[in-house]
Amino acid sequence: MLTPGEKLCTRCPKPAAKLGAKWPEGRVCRRCYQRAARTHGTCPCCGTNRLLPGLDSTGSPICVTCAGIPADFHCTRCSAEEEPYRARRCARCCLQDHLAELLDDGTGTIAASLKPLHEGITAQPHPRSALTWLRNPDVRNLLAAIATGTLLPGLDSTGSPICVTCAGIPADFHCTRCSAEEEPYRARRCARCCLQDHLAELLDDGTGTIAEFLKPLHEGITAQPHPRSALTWLRNPDVRNLLTAIATGTRPMSHAAFEDHPSPRTAMHLRELFITHGLLEPEDRNLLHFETWLDQLLTELTDPNHHTLIKQFATWHHLRRMRQLSAAGHLRWGTTRAAKQDISVARDFLRHLSERGRTPPQCRQTDIDHWLATGPTTRSTARTFVRWAIRNKHLPRLEYPYRKAATRPVLDQNERLELLRETLDNQDRPLHHRAAAILLLLYAQPLTRIASMRTDQISRTPDGETVVIFDDQPVPVPHPFDAILQEHLARRPNMTTAANRASPWLFPGYRPGQHLHPGHLMTRLRDSGIHLRGARNATLRALVLTMPPPVAAQALGYSTQITEQHAKHAGHTWATYASYRR
Length: 582
Hints:
- This protein has 25 helices and 15 strands.
- By secondary structure, the chain is mainly alpha-helical.
- Strands 13-14-15 form a three-stranded antiparallel β-sheet, covered by helices on one side. A two-stranded antiparallel ribbon has the order 1-2. It has a two-stranded antiparallel ribbon with strand order 3-4.
- A hairpin with a 2-residue loop joins strand 1 and strand 2.
- Helix 4 packs antiparallel against helix 21, helix 13 runs antiparallel to helix 14 and helix 24 packs across helix 25.
């Protein structure tokens, strides 16, 4: 029953205790106003895509103009048409301002180490939920303390972190050098100051100062968010010796300084760090790694004939082509991986001939048959080497059969959906592994392509929809999988060291400037129970059942021949599709 002065909401209709707005249609309660002011889409009256707070005669949402609502919902900051949150500004702009205040390092700007956090929180689909979360005083105090460097070693009665003074701790954590309140690392100095001093000693050119050309490296390493990890890294004597040798001129400031080093992994990491910080010209890392691997393999070949033959095969058949691809910017990890397998199997084939008392010119068909019959199926890849050797007259003319896989592994669609459900629900798995699994199970992307994706391939439309680009057109990401990709985008791994401070990769790697190695993702997803080829084939077949193969090929970055093959195996030929009609 209505109390005196109460009126019904024209939409519910319920008593409008809290008035949201008074529009031409009548009084609208607060709840209906919020629902209306958060509805977006295409207006059925004028066909524009915008906010739809009004209703037409059939009850369908329509825009402000067509509904005759005398209100302007455009944000005075960003001009987005949204429900105003405060002072005629939208919730996202208010969130950006409020969070910037909390993360201010005392200079009027956001602390550099917290900028990714600011970007991640303000980019989420529902900024109002973040503003509600920031009402928690513990959250605000903790963020402000981290931004300003205030240490919170104590605990209050509720278990929340508090500062030294409030906790009554009789200790001074201020660094004697920079006055930052941090855990002391050595001689009452913080880890960052100790890192600056230690690295300056290693990069001294002999005059008591850092070598001029190495200053960008010093700035980059000492500015990383976790200086203790850099100090741990500098305990490696190979790292210290190599840095000192380059600083003093004992080793040249060039790529040659890192070649023939007794610790190739350390040298490779430092070389990539130098490239990342602009101290060396960029080189194709795939090609660089392959050449290093090849040199190591050749040194292990004791038979001079085998050494000569393998070197010729690697140089003229594989390395020449890879250098051409590298010059065009098209060399991929999968290409170098296949080349390594070809060369390794070729080496094993030559050893097999030696064990049977044959030299390459003495090879017989029975030797090839015995080689294929007594080993794993990977021996079939020696066909590339054998055909090259026959063509160049290193082997007599023999037959080396081409192996074709008898079956193509495909998961049942129920198995694929169960894997998607597990990926969504299993919070114990690392976030970047779940993001990679989604791209595999939803879009049939090979892991080599997933690993090399860039952050700008995932974006949000003005309507708040998350899209991903594999080829040249955006593909929508369904909810709730979009939340996982957006969360991963805001919390990418391996971003806390000097190696990847501004990495463009969606999956930053451990090495400077590189994306995560595809082999790492392959191992981790296999360990989580995903059959990689079976899952990818199942996903492709599911997709070509819902859209024509040419459309799937364009959206997913596949060739039309591949998608048509999967459509055929799935039992759907799309014979009635327009592009197939003659």
